[in-house]
Amino acid sequence: MPMEFEYKKLNKQTKMILTILLVLACIIVTYMLDKGMIGTSYTVRIVRISVIYALIGVSMNLVNGFTGVFSLGQAGFMAIGAYSVGVFTIPVADRANVFYLVPMSEKIVNVELSFGTALIMGGLLAAAFAALIGAPVLRLKSDYLAIATLGFSEIVRALIANNQMWPFTNGSLGLKSIPSFNSLFVPVIISVLGIAFMVMLINSSYGRAFKAIREDEIAAEAMGINLFKHKGMSFIISAFFAGIGGGLLAVHLTAIDTNQFKIMVTYELLLIIVLGGLGSVTGTVISAFLISFGKEILRWFDAAHYIGAWQIPIFRPGLRMVIFSLLLMSVVLFWRKGIMGRKEFSWDGIYNFLRKWPWVVKHILSGDYEKASREKRKVKSDGRATDKAGRAQSRLKIKKQKEEDSRAK
Amino acid sequence: MQNNAIEKPNVLRVSDATMQFGGVVALNNLSMEVRKGEIVGLIGPNGAGKTTAFNVITGVYPPTNGAIYLNDEIIVSNYPQGKMKDLYAGENRGKYTKAKTLTPDKITKMQVARTFQNIRLFKDLTVYENVLIAQHVKIRANWLTASLKMNYKEEAEMRRETLRLLEILDLLDVQDSVSSSLPYGKQRHVEIARALATDPKLLLLDEPAAGMNPQESDELMRFVGRIRGDFDLSILMIEHHMQVVMGICERIYVLDYGKLIANGTPKEIQKNPKVIEAYLGVDD
Predict the structure, then answer these.
(1) Beta bridge partner(s), residue B33
(2) Which residues contact A79 (CB under 8 A, 6 or more apart)?
(3) Does the residue B238 lie in any domain?
(4) Cα–Cα distance between B206 and A7 in angstroms, integer?
(5) Which residues are CB-contacts of B51 (< 8 A; sequence separation ≥ 6)?
(6) Given an 8 Å threshold on Cβ–Cβ distance, is A388 in contact with B176?
(7) Tens digit of pLDDT for each residue in A55-81?
(8) How many structural domains compose chain B?
(9) Which of A53, A106, A283, B128 has the most CB atoms lying inside 10 A of its own CB?
(10) Which residues of A touch B124 (CB under 8 A)?
(11) Which of A222, A227, A342 shows the shortest C-beta gap to B108?
């Protein structure tokens, strides 16, 4: 074993094979879950909610983590998407049952849209609302912007429950009989497509402009980036996908009411993106799954437990949330940047993460903690460096070689 | 040489710019010009209004009164309005009647780039990314086509241009370091590289040699001279290091308490009693 750990890259083919294997594994797991070969319908429900939260989480991260705009309006956009899908996909025959107190408005009572159309309409409606409130709200900064967007999401909720809206939204009675997904693949594919689009946006020149705004608004503006336009762009695109996510959520739950889109939902999403890492898409996806599953696993604490005939007094409904909060607090204290920080998943990262441990352990065993932590950090700083610089330098070498060749001729 | 300079066209002309914050007149009636290919210095004691002048030129805030021309085209113009109507303490009231303001990004698009006194790099991003981001100003694709990678040619061009810039400015070896991890002098170079990536004709440098030792500032001087030729630039720089200013600038403007007290060649400025008084004070 060499004295010091060196960053090594996997070759391209290995990475490609690994990626294909991962995608295949995901498809197979989804298929098996869908057909009931593994897990129960309960597991399927958790996976469904996880992928939906992953989509909405990434959309929120686009604004909060990548553009540096502290927006807390996600629940409002979700509500808009959810109600668009809800109102228009309930089968016409069931509508009289759902709108039993105030009959549905005659204008829309016979309008039934397909799930896809309603979903896109919900997204577009959310985006339109974002454009509308973006104009005044995005002129604010940090906490003020958070408060304004938070206010917006409450207004949306109040509007939906408003008396005049009863013929359209059924007000505080909520909507039910929304047809559910006929396959787990539907939410998974929609989420994957949505997240993929946002990743592509982030990797484009516009995504880089978003990051520039996050890093330093004044410098970004001096570099020719129109702050208002780019913030608005990120805000509206984020709202679009939050609307789509809300629509998926409505279909997932099959029954919705305005209380499901309270501020708590936004906080839960905030938790997901902070835990995953502000500015990391893979982090958000991982943490959406972690939190959705974690909350269910912790249900064990809510149940009554006995030692012999004696019931242990602290195990009662509500303990789950106490444990959950404690876990979160420790994560935020000791892992401040979240699971992924601002990094993204890469095979090289995983490979070297696994490879470096023998060195770290060696240094810890020999009592050299400083060296151990230096070794641990090494991957983070050097990893990227060897990667890109190497490529660029070899490219330049080739270029210079060519020039010399042509001169020699 | 003086005559030669006058024949060259104006790149930037500041005309009677006054900037008043509440009751404080930070910049009083500043008129100056930068001609094509010139390196012009803007000096003055602390608090003389140099950075305010930069901020007015780059659109960070509109002047209270006065106008700014770029290539003899008016880009910013203002007159005392609202509260300033009563408060205004500057000169030339009523000379300007048009109000026109542009945001900094629009002015950058008109090929004016700047650096900052307290370095403002995108700290968590690499040098390569910093320079690449600055190319965004030239983008033609919209967000949708850019996301769907339909502008791959443009994207490749941007990346190629970034590498070319980094090569010219000797930053290739640090291109993948996170910009805040670099030494101070290198960070200044990166900031200038980033400004150059927006393809400017006029470059504004705000104290490029601040915090540098004589050797570093010597190097910087050569660097600035070199990029002027390589990139066909006109340069306006604020600087405290007299060695740098006198060594490189063709003309110098001196500000004190927001007012222009002198302008001319370095030799003229060195002898000017008003400048000596502003810098060193005078015996009573």
Answers:
(1) B13
(2) A153, A156, A157, A160, A246, A258, A261
(3) yes
(4) 40
(5) B117, B206, B238
(6) yes
(7) 999 999 999 999 999 999 999 999 999
(8) 2
(9) A283
(10) 215, 342
(11) A222
